[in-house]
Specification:
The chain has 15 helices and 23 strands. The chain has helices at residues 2-18, 26-34, 40-49, 56-78, 89-97, 212-236, 264-279, 291-295, 360-381, 390-402, 408-453, 469-482, 510-513, 519-527, 551-566, and strands at 23-24, 53-54, 115-124, 127-128, 135-136, 140-145, 162-167, 173-185, 188-197, 199-200, 205-210, 242-247, 252-257, 284-289, 312-317, 322-325, 340-349, 352-359, 458-462, 487-493, 502-507, 533-537, 540-545. Helix 2 packs across helix 4 (56-78), helix 10 packs antiparallel against helix 11 (408-453) and helix 11 (408-453) runs parallel beside helix 12.
Length: 571
């Protein structure tokens, strides 16, 4: 992916300089980041080296627009593509004017409860339902309750989902409402979703049924975000500040201030600290206290630019691991996270890095996958340098690893080991090829001398030098030295008998060139049977084909072409 980004930037640099422009525009920088996976800090570095500048402000606007598109897409997916319901100031004022009080959402901190409540207002795409109007089966509406156990999206944590049961006066279930999104507007929780069964009106009794199984996957990701925040300060220093986060049932994502990419050692240390917190089974507790009192707590952390309520909720992990202002839902103990894997670290803006990590079963699978690759790499390390195709095996293993969902520091370690294996294979191939070339030169000299003894003007040989163009020059030089008046073509397979890549190269001395044999045409004719291409000068040319299942056909065509041009028998 980086190769594509580098090529795109190089082409862009040439284009800008050709137009005498000096700025990498926001859309180009964002294309590199979003489509090609090219870190923005690398774009900035390459721009500086090229004497260019990047439109940072524009890039960050593009990034924010993308985030909004992502949020809209998530919300659209939850709502089945229906129009999203949102309250603006006019509507929250309407609620206040009608003596509807903000939702009591304290029950959100409780687990496995069925919270009784009543419907205070119903909001649809055309506004609030009034005068006893009911929302019926299939209607997409937003319910505002007097009390709710649902967590509304906030602080980077996605909202709870679940259902709301409609109840009769005697408590019997009369219908159901699927909750797909919960958002807070001026203290009013809007539970958006679809009436699945029955109908509901203002004043109806209901029961909140939160999907606690999903929350059990969200909560450990939020709690471990706090641990990750603390780990980053421990590894990178106290200058690290949180710049955003996302916690859902799949992963945790944490944005933080840092000027450059973390190295492998720092990533490993950060991951190890998080793993240790889980292994130590640290308690996670919360306390609500006056804001000024909370600010005085030693080591307390707050998100830069965030406005906190007074009183504020303080979440503590362990005795001294982490203390943060936070209104989210958490586990009671870090052990509930089960496992932790830091799977990615990248740039999102100038001076802002992003870490993505996973917990529980997703982390366990990533760890198991990592162990599998460790075993595969260890097995490859045990192979001797002259093992057939070692470099290609290492290259294939690298591609497989790149696509794998494993710990980022482990992936970096394994990549380094694979590079050593690949280098070992390449060096062994070079040594083996050198031996093949030396042997081939002796054979070529003997064949040329034999052809000279028979007064042949042309010689076509199947030579064993792989697809090494430098070796082909050695062969042609040897032919020129031994028989300067002979036309010669060498045909060589990259791996003999495999039907793979094949190379052709030839020389035609001036005397034979004048008789009608052209090196450029000769190579093209020889490779035509296997779809190859070639070119060069009349006296010297070369070419290749990606695949060749019949090397004898190439040799025969080379001889036939020369015979046709010179009217002589060639071998």
């Amino acid at each position: 992916m980086l190769d594509r980004g580098i090529k795109f930037f190089t082409d862009l640099e040439g284009e800008l300089k050709g137009k005498q422009q000096t700025t990498v525009t926001a859309d180009k920088a964002f294309f590199l980041y979003d489509t090609l996976g090219f870190p923005i800090d690398l774009t900035v570095l390459m721009a500086e080296e090229a004497g260019l500048e990047v439109d940072h402000a524009g890039f960050e606007r593009e990034l924010e627009a993308q985030k909004q598109r992502s949020r809209d897409a998530r919300n659209a997916a939850r709502s089945g593509g229906a129009q999203r319901l949102e309250l603006i100031a006019e509507q929250t004022a309407w609620l206040a004017d009608h003596a509807i009080v903000p939702t009591d959402d304290n029950p959100k901190y409780k687990w496995d409860v069925e919270t009784m409540s009543s419907v205070q207002a119903i909001f649809g795409t055309e506004g609030f339902l009034i005068d006893g109007t009911k929302a019926s089966k299939g209607d997409r509406v937003g319910l505002i309750l007097d009390k709710s156990a649902f967590y509304g999206e906030a602080g980077g944590q996605e909202a709870d989902i679940g259902s709301i049961a409609f109840l009769s006066e005697d408590g019997e279930r009369t219908g159901a409402f699927t909750v797909t999104e919960v958002q807070a507007y001026a203290g009013f929780l809007l539970h958006s979703g679809v009436v699945e069964e029955g109908s509901v009106e203002v004043g109806a009794s209901v029961k909140c049924l939160v999907d606690y199984e999903r929350r059990r996957d969200v909560a450990p990701n939020h709690s471990m975000t706090h641990v990750l925040n603390a780990a980053l300060r421990q590894v990178l220093g106290d200058a690290v500040e949180q710049r955003g986060s996302l916690c859902n049932d799949e992963k945790l994502r944490f944005d933080f201030s840092h000027k450059k990419a973390m190295n492998v050692k720092q990533l490993r240390e950060t991951e190890d600290i998080c793993k240790a917190a889980i292994a130590e089974a640290q308690a996670v507790t919360s306390q609500v206290m006056p804001l000024e009192e909370a600010k005085a707590i030693d080591g307390v952390r707050a998100v830069f630019g965030e406005v906190y309520p007074d009183p504020v909720r303080v979440v503590t992990v362990g005795s001294d691991t982490s203390v943060e202002f936070c209104g989210g839902t958490h586990v009671d103990n870090t052990a509930e996270a089960q496992a932790f894997a830091l799977v990615e670290e990248t740039a999102v803006a100038k001076g802002i890095r992003r870490i993505t990590a996973v917990t529980k079963n997703v982390a366990i699978k990533a760890i198991e996958e990592g162990a599998k690759f460790e075993s595969m790499v260890a097995e490859a390390e045990g192979l001797s340098a002259d093992s057939p195709g070692l470099d290609k095996k290492a290259g294939a293993l690298r591609k497989e690893l790149d696509a794998a969902f494993v710990s980022a520091p482990l992936k970096a370690d394994l990549r380094a080991k694979i590079e050593v294996i690949q280098k070992k294979g390449i060096e062994a191939n070079k040594a083996a090829l050198a031996q093949r070339v030396d042997k081939c030169l002796n054979v070529v000299k003997e064949e040329v001398e034999a052809a000279m003894a028979e007064n042949k003007r042309v010689l076509v040989l199947n030579v064993d030098i792989g697809a090494d163009s430098k070796a082909s020059q050695k062969v042609m030089n040897a032919v020129k030295k031994t028989a300067p008046d002979m036309a010669f073509m060498g045909i060589s397979e990259e791996e003999m008998g495999t039907g793979g890549k094949v190379m052709a190269f030839c020389i035609v001395p001036d005397a034979i060139l004048g008789d009608g044999l052209n090196a450029n045409e000769w190579v093209k004719a020889a490779l035509e049977s296997c779809g190859g291409r070639g070119g060069g000068k009349p006296g010297s040319a070369q070419g290749q084909a990606g695949e060749c299942s019949d090397i004898e056909a190439v040799l025969a065509e080379a001889n036939s072409f020369a015979t046709e041009k010179l009217g002589a028998i060639t071998t």
